[in-house]
Design a protein that fits this description.
The chain has 503 residues and is of the alpha/beta class. It has a domain of 226 residues: Rossmann fold (3-Layer(aba) Sandwich). Helices cover 45% and strands 15% of the residues. Strands 3-4-14-9-10-13 form a six-stranded mixed β-sheet. Strands 8-5-6-7-15 form a five-stranded parallel β-sheet, sandwiched between helices. The protein has a two-stranded antiparallel ribbon with strand order 1-2. β3 and β4 form a beta hairpin. α8 crosses α19, α10 packs parallel to α12 and α15 packs across α16.
Length: 503
């Protein structure tokens, strides 16, 4: 399997090169040159596998055995999807019937969110390649709440002296629990930074660093980004959708691969890495129907799907579902690549326009194609809170604010959780409520949070709460400086940390 750029057909590289580079050299995103096909016979075989076994079978289609052997791939996924996961739930990803929906619990990993699934596999593969090549690798990441803790835990668990992590988060814009997951890491391989800006403001500095510090022949060290622009993330996250399809099909008696009985999936959406993985699975032949994006008032994805207006908002709005706050989702570019059947010249022109103007109009046939594959709903904090309350009252089930955005979106799009005899649909539950005390209290009150804390709060989460925090490094925004000026200062600060501490 070779990989290319969403913007340039002349780019061709191995999985290792794509994974270890983050962005493509032309500023685009890596994608497989061709998606493998999945048929009903494969789906029937896969339906009998555990999650780690399924991961090995599916990703084998994207990674040459010359790069990672079968035995090594199996061990990577055992380490990624067994260690640190809650064994008491009986599966890496259990699925529960909540009303008429199938709730896909993606949050039973060590940091209580779906990012554990993609991040741990990516970090373990990067660790494998670093050891294989005997090269020092510094991972860089910016987080709006969930990605960072997952990366920190994955790097700490990998315990590879060749691999280090520089993680950034916007000061005051993640939950107290998420911050503690970062500031209590206590790993010699991790450096944590807070910055005085919004969630997207570190993207440009990190992209500039990666453009000049990536994987190069002959170098003994390199820097790699592990946000969801890295192809490894959506590649692993497509497993969520294969697994969800197989489990729901099994539950409702659908023959695996039956094209006449597809399953719609609703999910909270930020940088669109998860939904990109879902669309890849659908394009491969998994019978997935509509992919429905629930977003908060930072609603660029909603506007792109509903109006064809992929416009960056002038500012990030603070919400109670901050983990999905986004101004420009990286992975929309991958969706465009697959919507156009791999028309790299067109995608390059579109993204060049977006990069220059912060606006991209997709009208006519392209808007029709987007709306054929996707739908979206914009959810306010009040609507999110009502979804938390409704699910608690009607089904005695606690959900986090991001999952609540998906639940509210499902209702707004016509998927009634209280209905009977309707086509099956799934909702991806992306995080545990334990990470969002502040938002859960707003939705359910102190009494509701106390009830959850007594009955369902994970003991591992309580152990994190009891830890002492270490003060992170702070990138300041000096008064009077423009965004560009501040980002240049932050870029240099990050470079200094990488050189001084890691290389």
């Amino acid at each position: 399997m070779k990989y290319t750029s969403t913007r340039d057909p002349s780019v061709s590289c191995s999985f290792e090169e794509a994974l270890c580079s983050g962005y493509s050299p032309d500023g685009g995103l890596f994608v497989p040159k061709a998606l493998p096909s999945v048929d009903s016979s494969m789906l029937k075989k896969w339906s009998k596998l555990s999650f780690p076994e399924l991961a090995s079978q599916v990703t084998r289609m994207f990674i040459s055995p010359d790069e990672i052997s079968d035995s090594r791939l199996t061990s990577i996924f055992e380490a990624s999807f067994v260690k640190g996961f809650d064994a008491s739930v009986g599966s890496t990803v259990p699925i529960k019937k909540i009303g008429s929906s199938f709730m896909v619990e993606l949050f039973h990993g060590p940091t209580f969110c779906f990012k554990d699934l993609g991040m741990r596999a990516v970090v373990n593969m990067l660790s494998y390649f670093a050891t294989k090549r005997q090269k020092n690798i510094t991972l860089v990441v910016s987080t709006t709440g969930d990605t960072g803790p997952a990366a920190v835990q994955a790097v700490a668990d990998a315990d590879n002296k060749l691999m280090t992590l520089l993680v950034h988060f916007p000061k005051g814009q993640i939950s107290a629990f998420q911050r503690k997951q970062l500031t209590t890491a206590n790993s010699p391989y991790v450096h944590v930074v807070a910055f005085e800006g919004d969630g997207d403001d570190m993207d440009a500095p990190l992209k500039n660093i990666l453009a000049t510090s990536g994987l190069k022949s002959g170098n003994s060290s390199f820097v790699c980004g592990v946000n969801s622009y890295n192809i490894g993330r959506p590649l692993i996250q497509l497993l969520h959708f294969v697994w969800t399809y197989l489990r729901v099909a099994e539950e409702v008696g659908i023959e695996p691969g039956d094209k006449d009985n597809s399953i719609d999936i609703i999910l909270p959406t930020g940088a669109m890495g998860n939904i990109a993985g879902g669309y890849m699975a659908k394009k491969m032949g998994v019978p997935i129907g509509k992919l429905c994006a629930g977003v908060n008032i930072n609603d660029i994805t909603f506007r792109a799907i509903e109006k064809g207006e992929f416009y960056k908002s002038p500012r990030m709005e603070k919400t109670l579902s901050e983990a999905i706050n986004i101004q420009v989702p990286y992975n929309f570019e991958r969706l465009l690549f697959y919507l156009t059947d791999g028309n790299q010249d067109l995608v390059r022109d579109w993204m060049t326009t977006m990069d220059k103007t912060q606006k991209l109009d997709l009208k006519g046939e392209w808007l029709s194609k987007i709306q054929h594959e996707f739908s979206s709903a914009r959810i306010t904090d009040d609507e999110m809170c009502k979804a938390v309350q409704s699910v608690r009252e009607n089904f005695n089930y606690f959900i986090d604010p991001n999952t609540a955005v998906a639940v509210a979106a499902a209702e707004k799009l016509g998927y009634n959780l209280n209905a009977q005899d309707i086509p099956p649909f799934a909702i991806l539950s992306t995080a545990s409520p334990c990470k969002f005390e502040e938002s859960v209290i707003v939705a359910l009150g102190e009494e509701g949070w106390t009830t959850y804390k007594k009955s369902e709060f994970p003991s591992r989460a309580a152990a994190i709460e009891a830890k002492d925090e270490c003060e992170p490094t702070l990138y300041k925004w000096p008064k009077g400086l423009s965004m560009e000026e501040v980002q240049k200062e932050w870029e240099q600060a990050a470079r200094d940390i990488i050189i001084k501490e890691f290389l």
